[in-house]
Amino acid sequence: MRIGGLASGMDIDSMVGELMKAQRMPLDKLNQKKQVLGWQRDQYRDINKKMADLDTYIFDKMALSNTYNKKKVTSSGESKVTARSINSTQNYSAKIQVDKLATSTTYKSGDITKFTQGDHALEFHVTDPGNSQANPDPVKINIASTDTLDDIVKKINGSELGVTAMKEKILDSSTGEYTETIAFTSVKTGKGGKIEAADDATANFMSSSLGFSLNGRELNSLQLGENAKVKVNGFDMEKTSNQFAINGMEYTLLNTTSSELTISSETDTDGIYDTIKEFVDKYNGLIDEVNQKVNESRYRDYQPLTAEQKKEMSEDEIKLWEEKAKSGLLKNDSILTSGMNGMRMDFYSGVKSDGTTQQLTEFGISTSSVYQLRGHLEIDEDQLKQKIKEDPESLQQLFVGGGRNASYEEKGIAYRLRATMDTTMKQIENKAGNTTKSNNQFSIGKSLDDVDKQVNRFEDRMKQVEDGYWRQFSAMETAIQRMNEQSAYMSQQFGSLGG
């Protein structure tokens, strides 16, 4: 039981609080240490995220040959035929004439106004245009007894039947009544496609319930699909689709033509340059942040604020203080400095191919002469664009080289960087973990757990100390109370004698 100064008139709460404040100073230091470890962990993870973003960009762009083979394709009749380069390495020119567009097969049912609901397990064989063999895996559609025509249309559209289905409502002018039908349009164009019921039950449902006409088990078409007929550089061709590729160029037919159109391509200098510049900007952003972290000042007098200290400060003061407290937590960090040195070496070292060595500077990309920027890249736009225009294959060789498994000398810059960053990111994860790892899986996490244990032990000890103070003050209060009672008793006795 705690007695709070009723007898003595002293502010026991405040006195114990002041005594405990001195006792808690080591605990404050432990909590400050925990906060510093948490800040350090988060700073490591922020850098790792930026490295991962750069690694993804390199994988998606810089390590792909298509990045350096970008072509700007033009058509003399954009409303008739468009084209794009998909894997063409050379500039290209072609003449094309479109005599006929590819069309889809369509199917249409009879009147299904009096459709009867029921359970049905449907199976179909689908043969694509230009393919003589049916789909080896039957397309299955399960119809429930509660399904309406609209439900059936949705299920057909959501299946692999390969058609777009819709329900049509048609007014019969002679009777003034509406009839309902279902129409299928094949998703794929060209001739030769067909849909067959895989069993008699499916065939019966399609004819009796949905009103389609069948030849045996095959659905009769309303209109057969047709192939596109084109002439490319004087050669007559038939294509099942209005989109097809020839010699690394993908054509899209939009309409027929009365004469030949010209399709031509040239190196997309601006497009390739923009990709390289975006890569350099991302790399510089990473380099600049790491340089800042490993070189910023450490202010050891600015420790994390305690809750009590924050109460006495404004938000702006807290913000400025914590900026100082967070500064320099990664100063001269060996993992980061080693990783950045490795990345700089990846750029500086030439890439060998067929007995020649290419350097980054030959393409108008060099490191900044400003010492503080340490590895920051700069681009000579005119020089780089001229090199792209003249020899995009050399730029590809510089960044891609012999691929991931080539020797270091023959490995392109993109693959070198990925390997260096992979090593660095793993080292950072071993130090600071990631959101999927528990504390016991990385070194800072283990330190955090150790501090937590120390904090728990210290708080248990502080509770015992505080309880001890209260016992002493409570004993004092009890003693004073007894003395007051005795004094009052004696005063009463003396008073009675005097009377």
TrEMBL record:
Keyword field: Bacterial flagellum, Cell projection, Cilium, Coiled coil, Flagellum, Secreted
* GO annotation (BP), single: bacterial-type flagellum-dependent cell motility
Entry keyword DNA damage: no
UniProt cross-references to InterPro entries, sorted A to Z: Flagellin_hook_IN_motif, FliD, FliD_C, FliD_N
Q: What is this protein called?
A: Flagellar hook-associated protein 2
Q: Decide whether keyword Transmembrane helix is in the record.
A: no
Query: In which family does this protein belong, per the annotation?
Result: Belongs to the FliD family.
Subunit composition? Homopentamer.
Report the domain of life of the source organism: Bacteria
Origin species, per record, is Bacillus gobiensis
Question: What are the subcellular locations of this protein?
Answer: Secreted; Bacterial flagellum
| Record's function text | Required for morphogenesis and for the elongation of the flagellar filament by facilitating polymerization of the flagellin monomers at the tip of growing filament. Forms a capping structure, which prevents flagellin subunits (transported through the central channel of the flagellum) from leaking out without polymerization at the distal end.
Q: Which GO terms describe its cellular component?
A: bacterial-type flagellum filament cap; bacterial-type flagellum hook; extracellular region
In this chain the Flagellar hook-associated protein 2 C-terminal domain maps to 225-485
Domain Flagellar hook-associated protein 2 N-terminal, by residue range, is 8-104
Which positions make up the signal peptide?
A: none
